[in-house]
């Protein structure tokens, strides 16, 4: 049975398929996931029995869901770099090109497209700096901890706090993009490039949420428990 006092982040950590349900209800399971299910439902006016029923149906369905909680700090760090950092480095130039083209063509009559382009540029710059910092400073420190070389607790916790703050900013940025794109829904008159841009932005959001979830709710918890 679903525990209404369980935190959103913990529900998703136990079974990542639940992220899709929370996304449909507009519930943040990444940066804002450290609050109970009952509290979220009360704030958003969601029928907790209906939502719990949907979550329970998932639990009763056989899953091939990856158990990231069983992974070591080293394995998680390497996966995040290879998969999620690799994705943003590949996707950002492509999406930027689409966004620039659409804004240049339609921005005069639809200024929100210029806002989307500018917001994505800001988000991209922040994420690229963020990934570089993780790869050169933070993840090596986490791996040292995993390998038995205990770092200064205050320094490591400060680094984790900094990253979580950056995750929050990234989440707010992609949320603004979702609002500007009307939940990534292109208008009927949109050209192919326009439609592709919105699909790419939605995929980027999905990847970002998974990326942040792995770090905030699994990797960083493992590191703090190891201190």
Notable characteristics:
227 residues; mainly alpha
Q: Could you explain how this protein is built, in words?
A:
With 227 residues, this protein is an all-alpha fold. It has two domains: 52 residues, no CATH class; 156 residues. Helices cover 73% and strands 0% of the residues. The mean pLDDT is 90.
Furnish the topology, listing elements before pairings.
Layout: H1 8-14, H2 18-24, H3 37-44, H4 48-59, H5 73-106, H6 112-146, H7 153-180, H8 192-226
Helix pairs in contact: 1-8, 5-6, 5-8, 6-7, 7-8
Low-confidence stretches: none
Radius of gyration: 19 Å
Give the number of DSSP strands: 0
SS summary, helix count: 8
Spatial shape:
globular
Structural category is mainly alpha
* Total domain modules: 2
Question: What is the overall pLDDT average?
Answer: 90
Overview in brief:
The chain is an all-alpha fold and 227 residues long. Helix content is 73%, strand content 0%.
């Amino acid at each position: 049975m679903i525990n209404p006092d369980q935190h959103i982040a913990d529900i998703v950590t136990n079974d990542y398929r639940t992220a899709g349900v929370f996304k449909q209800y507009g519930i943040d399971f990444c940066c804002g996931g450290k609050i109970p299910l009952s509290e979220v439902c009360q704030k958003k006016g969601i029928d907790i029995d209906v939502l719990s029923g949907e979550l329970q149906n998932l639990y009763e369905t056989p899953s091939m869901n990856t158990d990231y909680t069983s992974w070591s700090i080293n394995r998680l760090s390497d996966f995040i770099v290879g998969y999620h950092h690799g994705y943003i480095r590949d996707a950002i130039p492509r999406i930027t090109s689409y966004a620039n083209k659409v804004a240049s063509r339609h921005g005069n009559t639809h200024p929100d497209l210029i806002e989307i382009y500018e917001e994505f540029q800001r988000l991209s710059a922040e994420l690229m700096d963020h990934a570089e910092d993780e790869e050169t400073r933070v993840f090596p420190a986490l791996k040292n901890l995993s390998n038995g070389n205990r770092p200064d607790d205050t320094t490591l916790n400060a680094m984790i706090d900094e990253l979580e703050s950056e995750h929050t900013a990234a989440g707010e940025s992609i949320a603004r993009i979702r609002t500007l794109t009307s939940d990534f829904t292109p208008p009927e008159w949109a050209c192919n490039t326009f439609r592709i841009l919105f699909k790419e932005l939605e995929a980027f959001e999905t990847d970002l949420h998974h990326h942040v979830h792995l770090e905030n709710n699994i990797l960083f918890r493992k590191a703090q428990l190891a201190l």
